[in-house]
Each structure stands twice: as C-alpha cells, then as structure tokens.
Amino acid sequence: MKLTQVKPGQKGQVLNVAPGHQAKKKLYDIGITPGVEFEMVACHPFKGPIVVNLGNSRIAVGRHLADTVSVRLDS
Amino acid sequence: MSIVIIGNPNVGKSLVLNSLTGSREFVSNYPGTSVEISSVPIKIGTKDILIYDTPGIYSILSPGKEPQAVIELLEREDVGLIVNIVDATNLERNLFLTLELIEMGLPVVVVVNQIDRAREMGLVIDGPMLERMIGVPVIFYSAITGEGMLNLMEVLEKNQSRPPKRTARLDRCASCTGCSQAVCHHDPDLERVNWARDIAATVTSRMAHVQRIWLERLQNLVDHPIWGTIILLLLAYLGFKLLIEFISISEGPITSLLEPVSIIINDFIRQFLPAGMISNILSVAIPEGLIIPFTIVLPAMLMVSVMMSLLEDTGLLPRYSVALERVGRLFGLSGQAVIPLTLGLGCRTPAVVATRILPNEAQRFIVVTLLSIVVPCAATLGILASVISSLGASLAVIASAMLVTFIVLAFILSRPLPRQDDFIYELPPLRIPLWNNAWSKIKIRFSGFFTEILPLLLFMSIVIRAIIESGVLQIFAGMDNFTRALFGIPSEAFVAVLLTIFQRYLAPLVLLNLPLSPREATIAIVMVAVSLPCLPVMVMTIRELGFRSLIKILAMGLTVSFFIGFSLNLILPM
Fold this sequence. Notes:
heterodimer; A: alpha+beta; 5-stranded antiparallel β-sheet; 5 strands; B: Rossmann fold; 6-stranded mixed β-sheet; 25 helices; 8% strand
C-alpha cells in the first residue's frame, strides 16, 4: 500500500520508493528509505502534507511525494 | 590548511562552532538557514586555522545548491580535517552522510552532538564501538553542558601537525565501472543507507524514557492537523496584533521625543544654506530621513527580530509551512509565504524582513514584489479609506482591482518556479528557546539598523525630495489630453499619482484638493494603491535583496500601476 493510505497512529515499514532520481534522493536524504520503520502522526486534510515519525525524527512530506512510497503495515 | 564543519540540517553545527570560537555565528533550529558558507579564523596551538561552517546537507550527492557548494569547497580548499557533526538522537540518518565523507578519503572526525538530549531520551550510544565500525575518531559533544569540547580541541590540535591528504572524489556509483544495462541494479545510496542503519542499530541501545512529557504532549498537539493549525494561526494572530500595537504605541513617544531634533536640524539647514532649492530639499529630507527610521523602522525591525528568532528557536517555524502548505500552493509559493504577506497588511517594513523564512531567493523576490506593489499596509488602507469616502470612489472596484492584481501577479511571477510538489521538511523537536541562541539571532537581524538602514533612508529621502522639488513631475501637468485618453483622469490627478508613488501619505492632501468625479477618483486611487512601496520598504528591499531587485520591483510597480489605470479606463463605464 501507499504511504498516503496509512492512517494516523498506524506503524509500518517502508518497502520501496518509486524511481525518479531527484524525488527519490530527497526522500532518501531525509531518512525515508527501504526498510525504515515509521509511525504515521498526522494527515492534513484537503490533500495537505502527511507527518511521520522515523526513529527520533519527525518528517512532513507532501502528498505528491508520499504517493511514491510503498509501505507495509505492522500486523 | 583548513577545517570544514559538515552535517545534516538542524544538528547544531553552528552551536559547536560558536562554542569553539566564541563568535556570533547564525544558529538556528530551522533546517536550511545558513545558505552561505562562512569561515572563522581560530588559533589552535600555535597555528592560525580557518574553520568553515557549511550549510546543512543530508548527502554530498543531493541535487541542489548546498551540496554543490560543499563539494566545491572540499575540492578548492586545502582541507586538513572534516568535522562531521551528527545528531545523537538520529544516528541512522546522520551516519549516511558520515559514510559518504569517509568514502571520499579525507580525514574525518565525527562529533556526536546533543548527547545530553539523547541521554534525556534514554538513548545510550557505544562510542568505542562506533569508532571501530567507521574507523574514524568519535567525540561525544554537548554545546549546552560543554561536554567534549576539550576532546575536540585536542583532536584539532593533533590533526594540524599531520600532513594533509589529497582530496578524493566520491563516486556516484562507488563500485560501478560503467555498465551498459538500461536499468542499473547497483544502488550505492541504498547500500550506504543499510550500512548506516546497521551501525546505528549496533551502537545504540535504549534505556528508560525520561523526556519531558509535557513538551512532547505539546508537540503532538501542535502537530495535530486541525488543533495544531488552529493553535499556530492563533499564535500568528497574537504576534500580528502585538506587532501592530507595539508600532503604534511606540510611534507617538518616539516622534514627540525626536520632533525638537527635527526642528533644530531644519532651522540649522535653513540658516546655514542660502535660501533656494537645495535648502528646501535638505531641510525637509534630512530630518525626515533621520526620523522615519526611528519611528517606523526601529520598532518594527526590533519586534519582528524578536518574534522570528523565537519562532525559529522553538522549532515552530517549519510547522507553519506544513499548516499553510495548501494555501501557499494556491499561489505557487511555499506555505511560509503566507506569513510575510499577512504581516504586510499591518506594516510592510517588517514583512520584508520576515521574508527570510522563505526557502529560496526566488520566492523571497516574489513575496517582496507582491508586498511592495499590491499588499496594502494598515497606513495605506487608512489613507485610501479617507480618500475613497470623501471623493465617492467605488470601494468595490478598488478592492477587486487590487485582489485581481494580486492573484494575477502572484500567478505570473511564480510560473517559472518549480511547483512545490516535492514538499518535504524535517520538523525539529519543540524546545524551550535557548536565550543565548535567540539573543544572537536578534542581534544579527537587528545589526544593520545603524550601519545600513539609517544612511540609506537618509539618502533615498533626499533623492525623492529632490525629484518632487525639482518640478520634473510638473512636465505632465500640460498633458491633459494624453492622461485623459490613457487613464481617464485629468493631468493634475496624474501628477498626484506620480507624487504619491513616491510618498503615499501625500495622497489625501493632493487628491482631495482636486475636483475629481467618482470615476476619476476610483482610477486614480487604484493607481496609487497599486504602485510602488514606501521609502522604508525600498530601503529594506535594498538591504535584503539588493539594489537590482529594487529596480526590478519599481519598474514592475510602475508598469502594473499604468496597466491597471489603462485597463480600468477601458472597462469602467463613463
């Protein structure tokens, strides 16, 4: 599933990031990389950014960019 | 030989540099504030060494100006040592850059910063193990408690006696020899990511969590999509009110305090210089140029400096860009643009300073242009309101003309910019502002007042007074046919428009004395309202964006003003 489909409070793991060099690099840089554990903190309404916790850092990502990230939820 | 400080955004690079050098460098709890590379000379042992502070980067290979600037610095300078600052609470991501730096073959020392915060959060990091795994010296550091400072000094001292190594380049594809496959399966980035994760997991262990609970709760509230947005907007509104109140309360006492000075200067010039044009110009312009900075610019600059420094240091600022992202997107700007634009409705001078929160120069230019040309400040609104009511001009036409101009101008100006689709921000943990940090930021923001603002305002004030007194504008007085054909207003009104372009507060004086019909008044008022910024804003623009940007903005302002006058003349019924 996509990162944008995750609900606040849910936890999971990033599976992969769709190619597209610049955008992918940006996500990698800030820590959204395959294998990383995350927790969804907030989804801003009206297609606003989503906020996730990665380890001890908190990251806000635009919907467009978050759509390129596939994830798996913790069962 | 030199030392280069490199690290992720928001890991406290500048704080480390500060505690090393005692210099007043820009520190910030906001990703991406130090865009330029700054250097500070320090004495280590017996040698003078230059320390470079670089903009925060996540990776040497990232696209964008900052990593490029760092690479160029590393290739250009004789680098004796890279001091890589990493955030102790975020090793996994920070070590990614560390691995890149080590791979480049330059001598690296890793400074694990904010170790005090990590301990507060219950993180225990095995330093010797980290050293063994990455093969370079590791120092635990806290700029707040002073831990690790002596160790770092020692390493710097030892290092300068070693012969510097040659700069090596980092291969984008570390082990690739250039394959011909369409899709490359080898991903050095991913390899480094995994490696960094393994190292971080091995050296870090978690103890009981002892972070300040209330701050965490507050942070969760502020990051809530609805409550957070409401809180942020409420805070912004309070700040806005405070700013306006502060300016209006302080204006009276400052003016009455400086009024005698102004009269003395005026008298002095009139006595000293022979009566004539020059005396007329200087006797008005010099007191004005000396007083305006203190009555309007000083309180505004001071208050905005304080508020912005606090917003930055608490970590609230990036949260505004998240909350306002959708509004900014409407204009093709990032969310923070909403802050200076709203501020401009109160007073545009501090708003121009506040554009510093925008992520790049291009956006700053757009916001300053919008502020200068269309956004009416409280004073402008008051003046316009008085003229509108007494001349019977159409408020609806004036308001919608300004709104349309704003939207069209924002749309046109933001066209060449890349869309803000790749919105991504790190939200730093909320913290109680460190007074030292906030204070040094306030000082830096405020520093230019006496050295730049005061002389510039004086100079500009003289220039403008000279233009008005010289009678150049009167050339248009005899061109009634011309101005009526183009803008539908009599030539006297056009001269008034030109005059008020330079000094908007003259508008009521000049326009009210003319026998204008409501239609003429409407057009003339719009042309005044949508034109050029006031003098303090011009000076601020020069200071913040440079003289060339000001010229561009002035040219655009005149064009827009004339174009709107012309269009309204075509559209409005006689």
